[in-house]
Amino acid sequence: MTTLTALWLPIVLSAVFVFIASFILHTVGWHKGDYPPVPDEEAFRAAVGPLGIPPGDYMVPRAMTMKEMQTPEFDAKLRQGPVLALTVMKNEEMAMGPMLGQWFVYCLIVSFFVAYVTGRALAPGAPYLEVFRFAGATAFLAYAVALWQMSIWYKRKWSVTFRYTVDGLIYALLTAGTFGWLWPH
Predict the structure, then answer these.
(1) Which of 54, 91, 143, 156 sits at 20 to 30 Å (Cα–Cα) from 46?
(2) How far apart are CA 86 and CA 63, in angstroms?
(3) Residue 182 pLDDT
(4) How far apart are the two ends of the chain, measured CA to CA in Å?
(5) For the segment 140-174, what is each residue's pLDDT rounded down to a tens digit?
(6) What is the CA radius of gyration of the chain?
(7) d(CA 121, CA 113)
Protein backbone atom coordinates (compact mmCIF):
# COMPACT_ATOMS: atom_id res chain seq x y z
CA MET A 1 0.00 0.00 0.00
CA THR A 2 1.19 3.50 -0.87
CA THR A 3 0.03 6.54 1.09
CA LEU A 4 -1.76 9.43 -0.59
CA THR A 5 0.79 11.88 0.77
CA ALA A 6 3.49 10.04 -1.18
CA LEU A 7 1.42 10.56 -4.34
CA TRP A 8 0.79 14.31 -4.17
CA LEU A 9 3.12 15.06 -7.12
CA PRO A 10 1.53 12.61 -9.60
CA ILE A 11 -1.93 13.79 -8.46
CA VAL A 12 -1.16 17.44 -9.24
CA LEU A 13 1.00 16.86 -12.32
CA SER A 14 -1.43 14.42 -13.98
CA ALA A 15 -4.24 16.96 -13.47
CA VAL A 16 -2.07 19.63 -15.14
CA PHE A 17 -1.27 17.31 -18.08
CA VAL A 18 -4.96 16.42 -18.57
CA PHE A 19 -5.92 20.09 -18.35
CA ILE A 20 -3.41 20.98 -21.08
CA ALA A 21 -4.47 18.03 -23.26
CA SER A 22 -8.13 19.00 -22.96
CA PHE A 23 -7.27 22.56 -23.97
CA ILE A 24 -5.48 21.25 -27.06
CA LEU A 25 -8.31 18.86 -27.98
CA HIS A 26 -10.92 21.60 -27.71
CA THR A 27 -8.94 24.21 -29.65
CA VAL A 28 -8.08 22.02 -32.65
CA GLY A 29 -11.76 21.62 -33.53
CA TRP A 30 -12.17 17.96 -32.51
CA HIS A 31 -15.46 18.87 -30.74
CA LYS A 32 -16.60 21.60 -33.13
CA GLY A 33 -19.71 19.74 -34.32
CA ASP A 34 -20.84 18.33 -30.97
CA TYR A 35 -23.64 20.86 -30.49
CA PRO A 36 -25.04 22.10 -33.81
CA PRO A 37 -27.60 24.91 -33.83
CA VAL A 38 -31.30 24.07 -33.96
CA PRO A 39 -32.95 24.67 -37.33
CA ASP A 40 -34.19 28.27 -37.54
CA GLU A 41 -32.50 29.29 -34.31
CA GLU A 42 -34.01 32.78 -34.37
CA ALA A 43 -37.58 31.41 -34.53
CA PHE A 44 -36.76 28.98 -31.70
CA ARG A 45 -35.33 31.78 -29.56
CA ALA A 46 -38.33 34.00 -30.29
CA ALA A 47 -40.75 31.22 -29.28
CA VAL A 48 -38.92 30.00 -26.16
CA GLY A 49 -37.37 33.23 -24.85
CA PRO A 50 -40.61 34.86 -23.66
CA LEU A 51 -41.39 31.78 -21.54
CA GLY A 52 -38.68 32.89 -19.09
CA ILE A 53 -37.59 29.34 -18.28
CA PRO A 54 -35.30 29.48 -15.24
CA PRO A 55 -31.88 27.82 -15.45
CA GLY A 56 -32.10 24.07 -14.90
CA ASP A 57 -32.64 20.71 -16.57
CA TYR A 58 -36.00 19.86 -18.14
CA MET A 59 -37.77 17.09 -20.04
CA VAL A 60 -40.46 17.76 -22.65
CA PRO A 61 -42.94 16.16 -22.52
CA ARG A 62 -42.70 15.31 -18.84
CA ALA A 63 -44.94 12.74 -17.19
CA MET A 64 -45.24 13.26 -13.44
CA THR A 65 -45.92 9.57 -12.66
CA MET A 66 -45.27 6.17 -14.23
CA LYS A 67 -49.04 5.79 -14.61
CA GLU A 68 -49.26 9.05 -16.59
CA MET A 69 -46.37 7.88 -18.78
CA GLN A 70 -48.52 4.93 -19.91
CA THR A 71 -51.54 7.00 -20.99
CA PRO A 72 -52.60 7.49 -24.62
CA GLU A 73 -52.39 11.27 -24.08
CA PHE A 74 -48.72 11.10 -23.09
CA ASP A 75 -47.99 8.71 -25.97
CA ALA A 76 -49.60 11.25 -28.34
CA LYS A 77 -47.35 14.00 -26.97
CA LEU A 78 -44.30 11.82 -27.66
CA ARG A 79 -45.40 11.09 -31.22
CA GLN A 80 -46.34 14.73 -31.89
CA GLY A 81 -43.06 16.07 -30.48
CA PRO A 82 -40.88 17.78 -29.84
CA VAL A 83 -39.19 15.42 -27.35
CA LEU A 84 -36.43 17.27 -25.50
CA ALA A 85 -33.93 16.89 -22.72
CA LEU A 86 -33.12 20.54 -22.20
CA THR A 87 -30.54 22.38 -20.12
CA VAL A 88 -31.24 26.08 -19.71
CA MET A 89 -28.34 28.29 -18.63
CA LYS A 90 -28.29 31.82 -17.24
CA ASN A 91 -28.56 34.65 -19.76
CA GLU A 92 -24.99 35.87 -19.44
CA GLU A 93 -21.65 35.82 -21.20
CA MET A 94 -19.90 32.47 -21.26
CA ALA A 95 -17.21 33.12 -18.65
CA MET A 96 -14.58 30.48 -19.34
CA GLY A 97 -12.53 31.23 -16.20
CA PRO A 98 -14.92 29.67 -13.66
CA MET A 99 -15.61 26.68 -15.93
CA LEU A 100 -11.89 26.08 -16.47
CA GLY A 101 -11.34 26.36 -12.73
CA GLN A 102 -14.05 23.76 -12.08
CA TRP A 103 -12.56 21.51 -14.77
CA PHE A 104 -9.12 21.69 -13.13
CA VAL A 105 -10.62 20.87 -9.71
CA TYR A 106 -12.41 17.92 -11.34
CA CYS A 107 -9.09 16.73 -12.83
CA LEU A 108 -7.52 16.95 -9.35
CA ILE A 109 -10.38 14.94 -7.86
CA VAL A 110 -10.06 12.25 -10.54
CA SER A 111 -6.31 12.10 -9.92
CA PHE A 112 -6.94 11.85 -6.17
CA PHE A 113 -9.17 8.80 -6.69
CA VAL A 114 -6.67 7.32 -9.12
CA ALA A 115 -4.05 7.71 -6.37
CA TYR A 116 -6.38 6.18 -3.81
CA VAL A 117 -7.22 3.07 -5.87
CA THR A 118 -3.70 2.58 -7.21
CA GLY A 119 -2.13 3.30 -3.83
CA ARG A 120 -4.32 0.70 -2.12
CA ALA A 121 -3.43 -1.91 -4.74
CA LEU A 122 0.30 -1.34 -5.09
CA ALA A 123 3.22 -0.75 -2.78
CA PRO A 124 6.06 1.70 -3.31
CA GLY A 125 8.50 0.31 -5.86
CA ALA A 126 5.78 -1.36 -7.96
CA PRO A 127 6.77 -1.82 -11.62
CA TYR A 128 5.83 0.96 -14.05
CA LEU A 129 3.40 -1.20 -16.07
CA GLU A 130 1.47 -2.32 -12.97
CA VAL A 131 1.06 1.29 -11.86
CA PHE A 132 0.14 2.27 -15.42
CA ARG A 133 -2.52 -0.46 -15.59
CA PHE A 134 -4.25 0.42 -12.29
CA ALA A 135 -4.01 4.19 -12.77
CA GLY A 136 -5.09 4.02 -16.40
CA ALA A 137 -8.13 1.82 -15.79
CA THR A 138 -9.29 4.00 -12.90
CA ALA A 139 -8.81 7.24 -14.85
CA PHE A 140 -10.58 5.80 -17.91
CA LEU A 141 -13.61 4.93 -15.80
CA ALA A 142 -13.75 8.49 -14.46
CA TYR A 143 -13.04 10.38 -17.68
CA ALA A 144 -14.85 8.21 -20.23
CA VAL A 145 -17.15 5.40 -19.06
CA ALA A 146 -19.04 7.76 -16.77
CA LEU A 147 -20.23 9.68 -19.86
CA TRP A 148 -21.84 6.75 -21.68
CA GLN A 149 -25.03 7.00 -19.64
CA MET A 150 -25.80 10.32 -21.36
CA SER A 151 -26.22 8.46 -24.66
CA ILE A 152 -28.14 5.62 -23.02
CA TRP A 153 -30.66 7.69 -21.06
CA TYR A 154 -30.70 11.13 -22.70
CA LYS A 155 -30.04 10.13 -26.32
CA ARG A 156 -26.86 12.17 -26.75
CA LYS A 157 -25.48 11.22 -30.14
CA TRP A 158 -23.14 8.25 -29.81
CA SER A 159 -20.66 10.01 -32.11
CA VAL A 160 -20.32 12.78 -29.51
CA THR A 161 -19.93 10.23 -26.72
CA PHE A 162 -17.32 8.42 -28.82
CA ARG A 163 -15.26 11.62 -29.20
CA TYR A 164 -15.43 12.23 -25.44
CA THR A 165 -14.44 8.58 -24.89
CA VAL A 166 -11.35 9.13 -27.06
CA ASP A 167 -10.61 12.23 -24.98
CA GLY A 168 -11.03 10.12 -21.85
CA LEU A 169 -8.64 7.52 -23.19
CA ILE A 170 -6.02 10.22 -23.85
CA TYR A 171 -6.55 11.65 -20.35
CA ALA A 172 -6.30 8.14 -18.83
CA LEU A 173 -3.06 7.43 -20.70
CA LEU A 174 -1.57 10.73 -19.53
CA THR A 175 -2.65 10.05 -15.96
CA ALA A 176 -1.35 6.47 -16.06
CA GLY A 177 1.97 7.57 -17.54
CA THR A 178 2.39 10.28 -14.92
CA PHE A 179 1.65 7.91 -12.05
CA GLY A 180 3.98 5.25 -13.49
CA TRP A 181 6.74 7.81 -13.97
CA LEU A 182 6.45 9.38 -10.50
CA TRP A 183 5.53 6.28 -8.47
CA PRO A 184 7.56 6.22 -5.24
CA HIS A 185 10.40 3.70 -5.06
Answers:
(1) 156
(2) 15
(3) 98
(4) 12
(5) 999 999 999 999 999 999 999 999 999 999 999 99
(6) 21
(7) 12
